């Protein structure tokens, strides 16, 4: 199934229609960046030649952070409008110790990828869907958010500026991480007075070290990922630190990841730490129905659309986790 998802995903990537841009196009860099780039002034900010790559071991990419050269930063003014963003060299950012994100976790993120085609051109995977999901998440976390156009533009600029970091076709992808956070200072619990949207990128290989081989998932019966009424249905940063303990325990026991159950009855299958799950039987593909505790993955939606087009019966239902002496099975709760 994972193989199927991967090939379906490839059919949904979108061409990236931005042209080569030069340093002049992205003129506003901070002083440090400008001086670092002064030597390069006559050259384009980034090289878009098809044969130009950074020096990396493309055959052994894991899912670790190898920051690409440029990040995109856009600030939100007091009136809730995002101003024109700009690219700058990847680097640390300054935050007040009392920033809303550091104290109260007011932030959401997204994850999307740029792919390189055999002819060198770049493709993005449905970035407009990430933009819409970020808007929904921002509403839940009481934050202003970039418009869909601003979001997609930021992704395109980040991908193109870092084109040398997009792995050769078939060797991996450029993972692109948009992050929206309450960056303004606040003491009492409340929404931050200012917001920052950042997009950075890193070349990656498979998320799981198992690659395309089967995963060994630990069904978690103690810790839960999300509860009804919480923020499990959006990509709030607050959903992730609480799963680390369960994930670490599962890994120490030799498992690849954790399968979470619902928090009320500890009976229904929900999702893994960072991906949705499907149960496949013959020509029927089932996935847990979303109800606010499960993230509505863009891969999930795409798999359902394409599988259905290809004649599979696709159902969104409650799947019961049932234990048998030597095996586990998931049964539809009809
Ligand atoms: C908890 C969780 N579920 C599902 C997904 C899959 O989402 P998508 O298919 O949009 O990448 C993610 C992605 O990071 C996630 O963190």
TrEMBL record:
<keyword id="KW-0663">Pyridoxal phosphate</keyword>
<dbReference type="GO" id="GO:0008652">
    <property type="term" value="P:amino acid biosynthetic process"/>
</dbReference>
<dbReference type="Pfam" id="PF01063">
    <property type="entry name" value="Aminotran_4"/>
</dbReference>
<keyword id="KW-0808">Transferase</keyword>
<dbReference type="GO" id="GO:0009082">
    <property type="term" value="P:branched-chain amino acid biosynthetic process"/>
</dbReference>
<keyword id="KW-0100">Branched-chain amino acid biosynthesis</keyword>
<comment type="similarity">
    <text>Belongs to the class-IV pyridoxal-phosphate-dependent aminotransferase family.</text>
</comment>
<dbReference type="InterPro" id="IPR033939">
    <property type="entry name" value="BCAT_family"/>
</dbReference>
<dbReference type="InterPro" id="IPR018300">
    <property type="entry name" value="Aminotrans_IV_CS"/>
</dbReference>
<protein>
    <recommendedName>
        <fullName>Branched-chain-amino-acid aminotransferase</fullName>
        <ecNumber>2.6.1.42</ecNumber>
    </recommendedName>
</protein>
<dbReference type="GO" id="GO:0004084">
    <property type="term" value="F:branched-chain-amino-acid transaminase activity"/>
</dbReference>
<dbReference type="InterPro" id="IPR001544">
    <property type="entry name" value="Aminotrans_IV"/>
</dbReference>
<keyword id="KW-0028">Amino-acid biosynthesis</keyword>
<dbReference type="InterPro" id="IPR005786">
    <property type="entry name" value="B_amino_transII"/>
</dbReference>
<keyword id="KW-0032">Aminotransferase</keyword>
